[in-house]
Amino acid sequence: MPLNFLSTPIDYLAGIGPERAKLLRSELHIHTYGDLANLFPNRYIDKTKYYKINQLVPDSAQVQILGKIINIKTAGSGKSERLVATFADETGRMELVWFRSQKHFRDSLKINEPYVAFGKVARYGSQYNIAHPDLELLVDHKSRKQSAMTPVYPSTEMLAKRKVTNTYIVKCMRKLFSEINGAFVETLPDDMREHYKLIGKNEAMLNVHFPTTPELLKHSIYRLKFEELFFIQMELLLQNRIRKTKIRGYVFDNVGDKFTDFYKNHLPFELTGAQKRVVKEIRADMGTGAHMNRLLQGDVGSGKTIVAVLTALLALDNGFQACIMAPTEILAQQHYSGVSELLEGTGITVSLLTGSVKTKARRTIHEELEDGTLDILIGTHALIEDKVKFKNLGVAIVDEQHRFGVAQRAKLWKKNELPPHVLVMTATPIPRTLAMSLYGDLDISVIDELPPGRKEIKTVHRYDKNRLAVFGFIRDEIALGRQIYMVYPLIEESEKLDYKDLQDGYDSIVREFPLPKYKVSIVHGRMKPEDKDYEMNRFVNGETQIMVATTVIEVGVNVPNASVMIIESAERFGLSQLHQLRGRVGRGGDQSYCILMTGHKLSANSKTRLDTMVATTDGFKIAEVDLKLRGPGDLMGTQQSGVMDLRLADIVKDNHILAIAREAAQKLLAKDVKIEKPEHAGVKRVMSFLQNKKGLWKYIS
Ligand code: ADP
Ligand code: MG
């Protein structure tokens, strides 16, 4: 059989004429034999099972029933005219109904002969029926070799309309496999298949379409998913390796005075084990001569700032400058005051550059940056303006990366002869295996430990009718000197309504908590930046006790004295957002609380989100639930990595296979990094194909 057999145009398959070939091309992207073979079923119908009529329930889906037709009649008239057969078994009666081809069926149906009827069950009144059933005489049914499970292939509206039915596709598939069975080239090495108990390519391909047993089907799907994930991992690991060898970075092998002095004399607390490990990883990275591009994941409050400072000091010790970029003015300001405080007495110079820095001060910053008197620059997007020129930027630290695009990061690179090392910090945790497979171009460090002495934030779910009790609680907390956040949803589509809710909420809070005893701040996205900052600062400085806000406060704001986070219409927030918001409290030594307010009607999905929040404060656990609820589609970067093109595997549900496939890829590369051993020829072929940026499955066939 010639190797390119699978690339035979689909028109050549017996039974597929030019018309249908065209449909298959346009609707399902099936151009060749190989493409058709790689059209995988969405699901299977178990035809090993027969239902009794008295076992049917309204949503029985597709069922198979053994019985006899005892009566045929025409019912209705005009458009609703239909042929109705009464179908009976020993447990009851139901109806089989035809709207089309009535004459044909009236003439051909046999009374009192055993039939097997198959189809989707519906119920009208007390009567079950199947419209246009697949109907087969029991004798024929028995004589035909049955495969246990019938595949159901993806379809489209157009295909259904043009009568390219599932039965037709199954027929084509049968024809195809009678011609090409055994044509698939094994892609995975023998030892790997043995070690991970993976069945062969040909067996898997045949059984995924025509499973002989449920067991074999399971093994086939596993094998094919493994293969898919394995090659994606191979590609990511190789890309990462290429980046490390090709993109040079400054060598920071000098751990000098500034780092050591700070570590010995200015560190305000002992680093946690996780912080130490991460700093070590960063140091190792920046010392190699390769370019660092590292993602630092750490839950809110896990202490990323100190890691950023230590990273900056490593650059300084090697004669370079550092910058820290934050997504908002408020955050940049907080970083600036936090970092300045940490570095007090060290002689290291730090400046803040944001949109609101006045021209004169700005000019000074520009000058000091260019002549190298300024060590660390902290700021917002203002940092990547063209006028900002570093003398020698050694490391760029980017906080809360999901607000920064790749393009913006690339802009930072242009300021140097070599790209500065990049450390991206995020408080949006992603399960580790998933993160590793999504961000092929990033290395990952995780702070998975909170500083000691933190009190767990108590989280409760309350309904709107409990509002008075909640107000009472707020009063008590304020009496203890604490501050309160009250957050309202802001969703673009209903922006106007949201602002009305926010305003109403604010009005009622002001009524409940009147001047002069209480002072309430309000912050939202429609305010001018300076008004926003003014209000925010009043709250930060403790001048107001309650902050009513939209999600603008979501990211990073640090007010250790705030102990209560009330989230209004909590059912409208996503899990990661709820988690971020909750992270605004629990930053001081006091017991903190998060109250999730909702109305009475909750969807199952909302309920799961709320329950999860109440049950755990572990950001990684929350991220996992979130992924299961939303799927990975929303995660940043997934489009770039090609992961979304997965045919069979589901990056979330098949996470365990992913981890194993990654391990297999790592092992293979450890043995044979150039993929040149003869036993890896199959792997090599797929990889060189992938490098030409063709779809994975085009080749794997
Ligand atoms: P995030 O990861 O959210 O940016 P921060 O860096 O703002 O967290 O740290 C949160 C708080 O925890 C800060 O007040 C910081 O001073 C404190 N902190 C960080 N690391 C430690 C530690 N190892 N021991 C005690 N407190 C720490
Ligand atoms: Mg932070």
Automatic annotation (TrEMBL):
<keyword id="KW-0233">DNA recombination</keyword>
<dbReference type="GO" id="GO:0016887">
    <property type="term" value="F:ATP hydrolysis activity"/>
</dbReference>
<keyword id="KW-0547">Nucleotide-binding</keyword>
<dbReference type="Pfam" id="PF19833">
    <property type="entry name" value="RecG_dom3_C"/>
</dbReference>
<dbReference type="InterPro" id="IPR011545">
    <property type="entry name" value="DEAD/DEAH_box_helicase_dom"/>
</dbReference>
<protein>
    <recommendedName>
        <fullName>ATP-dependent DNA helicase RecG</fullName>
        <ecNumber>5.6.2.4</ecNumber>
    </recommendedName>
</protein>
<comment type="similarity">
    <text>Belongs to the helicase family. RecG subfamily.</text>
</comment>
<dbReference type="GO" id="GO:0005524">
    <property type="term" value="F:ATP binding"/>
</dbReference>
<comment type="function">
    <text>Plays a critical role in recombination and DNA repair. Helps process Holliday junction intermediates to mature products by catalyzing branch migration. Has replication fork regression activity, unwinds stalled or blocked replication forks to make a HJ that can be resolved. Has a DNA unwinding activity characteristic of a DNA helicase with 3'-5' polarity.</text>
</comment>
<feature type="domain" description="Helicase C-terminal">
    <location>
        <begin position="476"/>
        <end position="633"/>
    </location>
</feature>
<dbReference type="Pfam" id="PF00270">
    <property type="entry name" value="DEAD"/>
</dbReference>
<dbReference type="Pfam" id="PF00271">
    <property type="entry name" value="Helicase_C"/>
</dbReference>
<dbReference type="InterPro" id="IPR045562">
    <property type="entry name" value="RecG_dom3_C"/>
</dbReference>
<keyword id="KW-0378">Hydrolase</keyword>
<dbReference type="InterPro" id="IPR033454">
    <property type="entry name" value="RecG_wedge"/>
</dbReference>
<keyword id="KW-0347">Helicase</keyword>
<keyword id="KW-0413">Isomerase</keyword>
<dbReference type="InterPro" id="IPR027417">
    <property type="entry name" value="P-loop_NTPase"/>
</dbReference>
<dbReference type="GO" id="GO:0006281">
    <property type="term" value="P:DNA repair"/>
</dbReference>
<keyword id="KW-0238">DNA-binding</keyword>
<keyword id="KW-0067">ATP-binding</keyword>
<dbReference type="GO" id="GO:0043138">
    <property type="term" value="F:3'-5' DNA helicase activity"/>
</dbReference>
<dbReference type="InterPro" id="IPR047112">
    <property type="entry name" value="RecG/Mfd"/>
</dbReference>
<feature type="domain" description="Helicase ATP-binding">
    <location>
        <begin position="285"/>
        <end position="447"/>
    </location>
</feature>
<keyword id="KW-0227">DNA damage</keyword>
<keyword id="KW-0234">DNA repair</keyword>
<dbReference type="GO" id="GO:0003677">
    <property type="term" value="F:DNA binding"/>
</dbReference>
<dbReference type="Pfam" id="PF17191">
    <property type="entry name" value="RecG_wedge"/>
</dbReference>
<dbReference type="InterPro" id="IPR012340">
    <property type="entry name" value="NA-bd_OB-fold"/>
</dbReference>
<dbReference type="GO" id="GO:0006310">
    <property type="term" value="P:DNA recombination"/>
</dbReference>
<dbReference type="InterPro" id="IPR004609">
    <property type="entry name" value="ATP-dep_DNA_helicase_RecG"/>
</dbReference>
<dbReference type="InterPro" id="IPR001650">
    <property type="entry name" value="Helicase_C-like"/>
</dbReference>
<dbReference type="InterPro" id="IPR014001">
    <property type="entry name" value="Helicase_ATP-bd"/>
</dbReference>
